[in-house]
Specification:
16 helices; about 400 residues; alpha/beta; three-stranded antiparallel sheet; 2 domains; Rossmann fold
Length: about 400
């Protein structure tokens, strides 16, 4: 769950060393895989698109930290590191003599970031969890979906990504603290807590009404944002201001489809929260089917309202705005490897070190560079360590 955190750091210029078990990280076996036409297959550990996306700009070494030799090597690496990022269960690193207290004694400036499902303390700290469990126990799953259906999982690893984002922010704060004090610290990130912090209206609604929030289907929990089917797909319409609500009603009136929405009882936009919401939504849906996404979105934007089309995956890849800003990055061909197009930075700075330096590494690709070039091992040492299954 911390792999995206490492990617964020690596893409911003940090020298991130991915420590994999001998044979490679199990993430390398997560599909989809590059097409067989490129010479790759699902049996090739370097062809996972999942791996290739989340490990750009990282270096890779193989290391079995559970062995005495492997643990000693990790300790040496940590002595010269700014940040150690780990996602093992609470207590595991301590059981190997590689916990924060032990490593801090040798490197007082070390920032030791631990990302786990429920944190390092508390009655649930030893519970196992997937992305789905993170969404469920963080409070997000219950409010996702339709009122008449069970809670619905968000697509993608959203809980994992949220934990990684918060870990990245926390590490930057810890680095800032170290600049002022010279001291490192342990950063304890709980996936459950990071998800709970993103639930927006849920806790607020409960504090006011003392009843759990309900699933809202195509509507945002705040009731003033909804996604409507139109001629060629879906469009998002926001009526969180009186002007937006009045403008929408007026346009529907000009089309002869406003029904009774011009009645003064609908002047207060908060009626959307009331008993007549189904009637209002029926009228808006019938009207939206007479327009395209672009017509509705452009009209809304021209009137200073945040309306927009719901785009599909292929439209993202061809999006003019994203291409004009250079969001998509094409990798350089390396030997027989195909050139791939990657998502770029989710932010831009006037002065920034963000760049696509190289693709995700092969398993253990940098063993010799790091073990021999940086730690002083000989090739014979590596052969012995490999035979002992330490690397």
């Amino acid at each position: 769950m911390g792999v995206y955190c490492g990617k964020l750091m690596a893409d911003m210029g940090a020298d991130v060393v991915k420590v994999e078990p001998p044979g490679g990280d199990s993430m390398r076996r997560i599909g989809p895989f590059l097409s067989h036409r490129t010479g790759y297959s699902a049996s090739n550990s370097e062809s996972s698109l999942h791996w290739l996306h989340f490990n750009t700009n990282k270096r890779s070494i193989t290391l079995n930290i559970a062995t005495a030799d492997g643990g000693a090597i990790l300790r040496r690496l940590a002595c010269g590191a700014d940040v150690l990022l780990e996602t093992f269960p609470p207590g595991y690193m301590e059981s190997l003599g590689l916990g924060f207290a032990s490593l801090e004694a040798e490197n007082p400036g070390l920032i030791y970031a631990s990302v786990t499902p429920f944190g390092q303390t508390g009655s649930n700290k030893d519970f196992k969890a997937s992305d789905l469990v993170g969404l469920a126990m963080g409070g997000y799953l219950y409010v996702t979906g339709w009122p008449h259906t069970p809670p619905t999982r968000l697509w993608g690893s959203q809980a994992y990504h949220t934990a990684s984002n918060r870990a990245y922010i926390a590490i930057l704060i810890a680095i800032y603290h170290r600049l002022a004090t010279g001291l490192g610290q342990q950063v304890d990130v709980s996936m459950q807590e990071t998800v709970a912090a993103t639930t927006e209206h849920v806790n607020t609604a409960y504090n006011y009404d003392h009843v759990p929030a309900v699933r809202c289907g195509f509507r945002h929990g705040g009731q003033f944002i909804a996604t409507w089917r139109c001629k060629d797909g879906y469009v998002s319409i926001t009526t969180n201001t009186q002007q937006a609500w009045d403008d929408l009603r007026s346009w529907m009136l000009r089309d002869g489809m406003a029904g009774d929405l011009m009645d003064p009882r609908y002047d207060d936009r908060f009626i959307l929260r009331g008993d007549l919401s189904s009637h209002i939504e029926g009228l808006i849906q019938a009207w939206a089917l007479n327009h395209t996404r672009r017509e509705i979105a452009d009209w809304g934007q021209d009137h200073h309202h945040p309306w927009g089309p719901v785009v599909t995956e292929d439209e993202i890849l061809e999006n003019e705005q994203l291409r004009e800003r250079g969001f998509f990055i094409k990798s350089n061909n390396q030997g027989s490897e195909p050139a791939l197009v990657y998502p770029g930075a989710p932010y831009k700075f006037s002065q920034s070190s963000w760049q696509f330096r190289h693709a995700a590494p092969d398993a253990g690709q940098h063993n010799q560079d790091i073990y021999c070039g940086e730690l002083g091992f000989t090739v014979s040492d590596l052969e012995a360590l490999s035979a002992a299954r330490a690397i």
